[in-house]
Design goal:
heterodimer, A: mainly alpha, 3-stranded antiparallel beta sheet, about 50% helix, globular, B: alpha/beta, Beta Polymerase, domain 2, 5-stranded mixed beta sheet, two-stranded parallel sheet
Chain lengths: ~425, ~240
């Protein structure tokens, strides 16, 4: 009789379903997982230590590169921590712009998650569908900041600039027919807000399309129903947040419960799961796509009717505009001091969190009164989720590991930091 | 509406601060309320007891550990900009060097815990000061299971030892890494760099060749706008 022994399997760090650089050491009895030991840190860049050596404002672009799928939400947590530390008021229009872009970011993130999770589990088409819509949203990023991913748009006291009146258009080229270009430019004739509005008109129908592919799909349900079940009590013990917590049945959403930006002025619902398995978390995230779309629509409506400043008028924190610098000595001095030295918040400590697409993303800043943070701790939702890997996959098959990694929505930029 | 929401949150946290002071001051705990956030400073021997109480008592129910991190206070309040020598050769910078005190922080290391109560919609922070030579504290994994990786991270980056943690390995740094990189005495550019050596046909570690440079010096300014009203009063009584 052949000897039966356990296998130790190395999953990643170059496995396509490892979503980046996860190295999982799996101890297996046949095809059943007995123990999972995730090794992380392959993307560790010491963001927090780097931030300690730079003035506050210079670390904003690092935030984009943490969770590189929800860029503006990370920035939001960081600038909110600074704003609370120095006590600067953010103009209402900037609050709405932030709310709108947070939700656009949430749609971007959930679309990527849906596409790649589908791809991992075997639904190739999802990937193509989702990336088609992501393209439009990244164009919004580009129109407002010039960058398609790493925006660096939020600043302490507001946002970098107001929304543009014009959308960039496709140029005629030799690869596409004129009719094709005209069709692509159809929604780009007006302002950015018109473009976003046209997107939100179209998007609920597109979410229906995704749902026809997955929600009642026999294979999809076989791969996700009853996989990676987390009870509500365990979800709290393990430090879950965001859709992972809501999938287990807690209606906990920082946008409602500890509201920030303009979330208390828009109307939306919190979707909640029942069973705490991969399928419920899928349903929660798909519903969040629809709710985000609703929020974006309300913000567009408000922003159309209410012009105003988008950054605080406090030149100790926010730079004066360029025209003022040409004939106002004081504005020039403020500008010089801000960009050579930065601002010095009072000594103190603050923790500010936002509801990022993956869960609670928080920044803990300790200031000793200097122009650089004394300590910055980034609380990444994925870190807590991934630490529950062992518990979630124990007793499941190898193929289910892929479904569980997918459902956690791990991004190593934030986990390794 | 925003104002009312904010105020009720402030009220809840003010009530929390009072309850904490009532319940834990006999254990030598300090309550600090700042910027609408409540911090409880705990002597390390009472950590597990207080943490369990905070998790289970009906008026707290801090069931979730949101974050755990180490802090190194050894450089607190130190500014890189020596004013006198700068003024000797050029312009004065209007900076009084190294004035901000470390008085509030008795030791070099601290372990900081952020808690969330979903039932009562409260947040709070625990801080435990640790010995500067041998930072050691009881592990809270038994209280909050989610502390596991956070404690490993704090151990990895700061060298804080968590007593009772079953698997205190490094987590973020490289296999075989030396030192604790987030301590203030660890250089930003590190100690070793690695490259592929084609002769040995493997990756080799060498001392770093890049030099550290400060682009923007660290400056601490006393800003009149941020002077606390109570410190004003103190000035008045002193005079």
């Amino acid at each position: 009789m052949p000897e039966i022994r356990n296998y130790t399997l190395n999953f990643g760090p170059q496995h396509p379903a490892a979503h980046g650089v996860l190295r999982l050491v799996l101890e297996m009895d046949g095809e059943v997982i007995e123990r999972a030991d995730p090794h992380i840190g392959l993307l560790h860049r010491a963001t927090e230590k780097l931030a300690e050596s730079k003035p506050y404002a210079q670390s904003i672009p690092y935030m984009d590169r943490l969770d590189y799928m929800s860029m503006m939400c990370n920035e939001h947590a960081y600038v909110r921590a600074i704003e609370r530390l120095i006590g600067v008021e953010v103009p209402i229009r900037a609050q709405y712009i932030r709310t709108m872009f947070d939700e656009i970011t949430r749609i971007l993130n959930h679309l990527l998650w849906l596409g790649t999770h589908g791809l991992d589990v075997g639904a190739m088409t999802m990937f193509l569908y989702c990336f088609r819509e992501r393209e439009d949203l990244m164009d919004c990023y580009e129109a407002v900041t010039g960058a398609r991913l790493h925006a660096a748009y939020y600043r302490p006291g507001g946002v970098y600039r107001d929304l543009p009146d014009e959308m960039p258009k496709y140029e005629p080229n030799e690869f596409r027919s004129d009719a094709d270009i005209a069709r692509k430019n159809e929604t780009r004739e007006g302002s950015l807000l018109d473009f976003i509005d046209a997107f939100t008109d179209r998007f609920p129908g597109l979410v229906d399309e995704y749902e026809t592919l997955l929600t009642d799909n026999r294979i999809w349900k076989q791969r996700t129903v009853g996989i990676g079940v987390v009870s509500p009590e365990r979800a709290l013990q393990l430090g879950f947040s965001g859709p992972m917590l809501r999938g287990s049945g807690y209606a906990w959403d920082l946008r409602k419960k500890q509201t920030y930006a303009a979330y208390d002025k828009v109307d939306f619902d919190i979707p909640v799961g029942q069973n705490g398995d991969c399928y419920d978390r899928y349903l929660v995230r798909v519903e969040e796509l629809r709710q985000s779309n609703r929020i974006v629509r309300q913000c567009v409506q408000w922003l159309r009717n209410n012009p105003g400043p988008v950054i605080a008028d406090d030149h100790k924190v926010a730079p004066p505009n360029r025209a003022d610098m040409k004939d106002d000595m004081e504005a020039l001095i403020h500008h010089f001091k801000l960009f050579t030295e930065g601002f010095c918040p009072p000594p103190g400590e603050v923790y500010a969190a936002v509801e990022a697409p993956k869960g609670e993303f928080g920044c803990y800043v300790i200031s000793d009164g200097a122009n650089k943070p004394y300590r910055l701790k980034i609380r990444a939702p994925g870190f807590a989720h991934l630490s529950a890997m062992d518990e979630m996959v124990r007793g499941h098959m190898l193929a289910d590991v892929v479904a569980v990694i997918g459902t956690m929505d791990v991004v190593f930029g934030e986990i390794d930091r | 509406m925003n104002d009312s929401v904010r105020t009720s949150s402030q009220e809840r946290h003010a009530a929390l601060a009072e309850q904490l002071a009532d319940q834990f001051s006999d254990k030598g705990c300090d309550v600090i309320s700042q910027l609408g956030e409540v911090t409880l400073v705990i002597p390390s021997e009472y950590l597990i007891e207080v943490a369990t109480e905070l998790r289970d008592a009906e008026n707290f129910l801090f069931k979730e550990l949101i974050d755990l991190c180490g802090v190194d206070y050894s450089g607190f309040g130190q500014s890189e900009w020596v004013t006198t020598s700068a003024s000797g050769t050029g312009f004065g910078r209007g900076v009084e060097a190294g004035k901000a005190a470390r008085d509030d922080h008795p030791t070099d290391f601290a372990s900081v815990y952020h808690l969330l109560s979903i039932a009562n919609n409260l947040r709070m922070r625990l801080r435990v000061y640790l010995d500067s030579e041998q930072p050691l504290v009881d592990s809270v994994v038994g209280v909050w299971r989610g502390a596991d990786w956070f404690e490993r991270e704090s151990f990895d980056l700061y060298g804080i030892l968590y007593n009772g943690h079953s698997d205190l390995r490094r987590i973020l740094t490289d296999y075989g890494f030396m030192g604790h990189p987030f301590r203030k005495d660890f250089p930003l550019e590190g100690n070793v760099e690695l490259r592929f050596d084609p002769e040995k046909n493997r990756v080799v570690y060498e001392p770093v060749t890049i030099e550290s440079r400060t682009l923007v010096p660290r400056v601490i300014r006393e800003d009149n706008r941020y002077l606390q009203p109570d410190s004003d009063e103190q000035d008045a009584t002193d005079a």
